[in-house]
């Protein structure tokens, strides 16, 4: 059973989501918190596997809360709850170690599946939402993108293609189908990408692809 904490400053949202998730046999809701600072304090005591973290909160917001959790309790994974308007904050949260994000109004089944994915070591980057986030980032950030590090040149052509798809939020299965290769081959490519680019995980690889405009929908 996956131990989950829900963090949101709005009691109706926080308690409502916790109540819905308590109905699922796969999950145990171990507690709730009002902001990122309280999330860290309670996580030390309750030891959740995954924290569902609202991105905009007074006090310590979700971006800061994610950094606190990942720095001090690295075994705890964070999944952001957000809206379409939070493109810059989403990007910052991913850079600070979040394993992905979901829109608050997504169905409970989608949220549960995302929790299962993150617990299994995956990243949750909904493709349609990610495309919109990247477009918004491109619109609001400086027009001249940073140059990609020289390590990118170490990637093979296929690894570069896989990195493009990671930046679009695709799963290994979806990448395999799109590139006409096996899922196992995709996993090997992802491991090579993470190693060559000296990244922490596939989420960081996706963030890398977005930051340096490697994604295919830019």
TrEMBL record:
<feature type="modified residue" description="4-aspartylphosphate">
    <location>
        <position position="54"/>
    </location>
</feature>
<dbReference type="InterPro" id="IPR001789">
    <property type="entry name" value="Sig_transdc_resp-reg_receiver"/>
</dbReference>
<dbReference type="GO" id="GO:0005737">
    <property type="term" value="C:cytoplasm"/>
</dbReference>
<dbReference type="Pfam" id="PF00072">
    <property type="entry name" value="Response_reg"/>
</dbReference>
<dbReference type="GO" id="GO:0000160">
    <property type="term" value="P:phosphorelay signal transduction system"/>
</dbReference>
<keyword id="KW-0597">Phosphoprotein</keyword>
<dbReference type="Pfam" id="PF00196">
    <property type="entry name" value="GerE"/>
</dbReference>
<keyword id="KW-0804">Transcription</keyword>
<keyword id="KW-0805">Transcription regulation</keyword>
<feature type="domain" description="Response regulatory">
    <location>
        <begin position="3"/>
        <end position="119"/>
    </location>
</feature>
<protein>
    <submittedName>
        <fullName>Response regulator transcription factor</fullName>
    </submittedName>
</protein>
<dbReference type="InterPro" id="IPR058245">
    <property type="entry name" value="NreC/VraR/RcsB-like_REC"/>
</dbReference>
<dbReference type="GO" id="GO:0006355">
    <property type="term" value="P:regulation of DNA-templated transcription"/>
</dbReference>
<dbReference type="GO" id="GO:0003677">
    <property type="term" value="F:DNA binding"/>
</dbReference>
<keyword id="KW-0238">DNA-binding</keyword>
<dbReference type="InterPro" id="IPR011006">
    <property type="entry name" value="CheY-like_superfamily"/>
</dbReference>
<dbReference type="InterPro" id="IPR016032">
    <property type="entry name" value="Sig_transdc_resp-reg_C-effctor"/>
</dbReference>
<dbReference type="InterPro" id="IPR039420">
    <property type="entry name" value="WalR-like"/>
</dbReference>
<dbReference type="InterPro" id="IPR000792">
    <property type="entry name" value="Tscrpt_reg_LuxR_C"/>
</dbReference>
<feature type="domain" description="HTH luxR-type">
    <location>
        <begin position="148"/>
        <end position="213"/>
    </location>
</feature>
């Amino acid at each position: 059973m996956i131990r989950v904490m829900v963090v949101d400053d709005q009691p109706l949202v926080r308690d409502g989501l916790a109540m819905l998730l308590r109905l699922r046999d796969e999950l145990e809701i171990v507690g709730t918190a009002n902001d990122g600072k309280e999330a860290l304090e309670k996580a030390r005591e309750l030891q959740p596997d995954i924290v569902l973290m609202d991105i905009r909160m007074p006090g310590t917001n979700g971006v800061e809360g994610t950094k606190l959790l990942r720095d001090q309790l690295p075994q705890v994974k964070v999944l952001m709850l957000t809206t379409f308007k939070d493109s810059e904050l989403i990007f910052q949260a991913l850079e600070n170690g979040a394993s992905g994000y979901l829109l608050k109004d997504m169905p409970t089944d989608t949220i549960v599946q995302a929790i299962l994915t993150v617990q299994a070591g995956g990243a949750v980057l909904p493709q349609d939402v990610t495309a919109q986030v990247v477009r918004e980032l491109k619109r609001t950030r400086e027009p001249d993108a940073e140059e990609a590090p020289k390590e990118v040149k170490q990637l093979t052509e296929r690894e570069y293609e896989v990195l493009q798809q990671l930046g679009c939020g695709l799963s290994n299965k979806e990448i395999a189908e799109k590139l006409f290769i096996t899922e196992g081959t995709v996993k090997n490519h992802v491991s090579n990408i993470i190693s060559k680019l000296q990244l922490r995980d596939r989420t960081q690889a996706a963030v890398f692809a977005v930051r340096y405009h490697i994604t295919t929908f830019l």
